[in-house]
Amino acid sequence: MTLGTTTGQLSGWAVGQTGPIASGPLTMVRRPVPEPGPHDLLLRVEACGVCRTDLHLAEGDLPPHRPSTIPGHEIVGRVIAAGEHTSRFAVGARVGGAWLRGTDGTCRYCLRDQENLCPASTYTGWDADGGFADVTLVPEDYAYALPEDADAAQLAPLLCAGIIGFRSLRRSELPPGGRLGIYGFGASAHLAMQVALAEGATVHVLTRAAAARELALRLGASSARDAYDGPPEPLDSAILFAPVGDLVPVAMSALDRGGTLSVAGIHLTDIPPLNYERHLFQERDLRSVTSNTRQDGRDFLATAARIGIRATVSTYPLSRADQALADLAADRVNGAAVLIPDGNASAE
């Protein structure tokens, strides 16, 4: 039996004709409120983070999986209706929806706890409508319980930027007390750095934006320089958050012997040729990051609560989602951009 009501229409933004953000790829839409399937939750959206993946989808760096999809996969919402086979969340519960939306559960990757590599995996805002709207559906099995007393705009970036940053940090094989380099310093990077610092790392931030360098130093980075200037000491590990392939050899050159570079993005411009002796010899490793598992999400959210992670956010009303995406494209967002229902919105 379906609980709650699903009458009326939703308001939101969909990707129309992909192209440069200046061409206006987002269009405002009104659609019937979707009916939850047997295993779905219908959420009234309290906040939705604006991820660089949303920008890649709007501009066509990631080919659309379906026409006129509503993006957004850092969703904080309240359950307003639930499918007949749901049991984890009651109507009124606060729930998070994230990037990973579905897996087959039977392939060899799922069976060995690598569901992020499932060939049948599906994604919020790419394969199904996401959170750039006032209501959205989230499969219950891929939803996260969220604290009732936290600010929704603070929680939203945790649900992708935080989870992916956490997985990228683990993929970087940072040793205890190690030296970590972070290339690019946006939503994901500034959350991952807080985890690394809490675990005793020395962190060097390398990014082109002066405001981002200032934020990094305020959050505890030992140094903050331009991405091409290099860190002040060799790195045990590095994470590349900027979608710039030219930085791969730069970061590899900054690694100490046995160091690892973890590339966090879903999209990266072409990587220049690597020189074996300069970039890879002495057991330097180059690793990619693909999505995340649900366990990554649970582990990160528990870590975030334990160490008191705080996101630096700029909030935008839902009606200005196109402006939020344009500001992200132009590097005008310091930290994370978050959409909230229309009303007061401000930088925090």
From TrEMBL:
EC number, UniProt record: 1.1.1.1
GO MF annotations in UniProt: oxidoreductase activity
Domain Alcohol dehydrogenase-like N-terminal: 37-148
Cross-referenced CDD domains: CAD2
Annotated Pfam families: ADH_N
Cofactor requirements of the protein: Zn(2+)
Keywords, comma-separated and alphabetical: Metal-binding, Oxidoreductase, Zinc
Family: Belongs to the zinc-containing alcohol dehydrogenase family.
The protein, known as: alcohol dehydrogenase
Species of provenance: Streptomyces polygonati
